[in-house]
Amino acid sequence: MKLEHIGIAVKNLKDSNQLFEQLFGQSSYKVETVESENVSTSFFQVGESKVELLEATGEDSAIAKFIEKKGEGIHHLAFEVEDILSEMKRLEGEGFQLINKEPKKGADNKLVCFLHPKSSNGVLVELCQEIKE
């Protein structure tokens, strides 16, 4: 449907929040921890899209491994979808490799699934669907 957010891996969420607050001229609208992913996140609304800062909360976090290997920077692109299950099935049928076979609860009240970068020109792609209460 649209680019939902850009995920940026950071070493220090507090310092990065201050930097991006200066850059965007506004405060983060949400900070939360996603225990299952060992990450703390902070979101900024930028026009119709968002920027998500991600800080590892443990050494086994994918973000910690990413920063160790590549340093801070863009980690993933997230696209909003209407029906994550049907989109996962469609993309798998098109030959994309899913990192997780079932969607899981992510940050910012979303169900999420990731496509392996090996199947998407080196870009980690996240599919996300709003969780309807």
Automatic annotation (TrEMBL):
GO molecular function per UniProt: metal ion binding; methylmalonyl-CoA epimerase activity
Coiled-coil positions: none
CDD domains for this protein: MMCE
Short name of any one Pfam family annotated for the protein: Glyoxalase_4
Keywords: Metal-binding
InterPro entries named in the record: Glyas_Bleomycin-R_OHBP_Dase, MeMalonyl-CoA_epimerase, MMCE/EMCE_epimerase, VOC_core
GO BP terms: L-methylmalonyl-CoA metabolic process
PROSITE patterns: VOC (PS51819)
TM stretches of this protein: none
Superkingdom of origin organism: Bacteria
VOC domain boundaries: 2-130
Record family assignment: Belongs to the methylmalonyl-CoA epimerase family.
The name this protein goes by in its record: Methylmalonyl-CoA epimerase
Source species: Reichenbachiella faecimaris
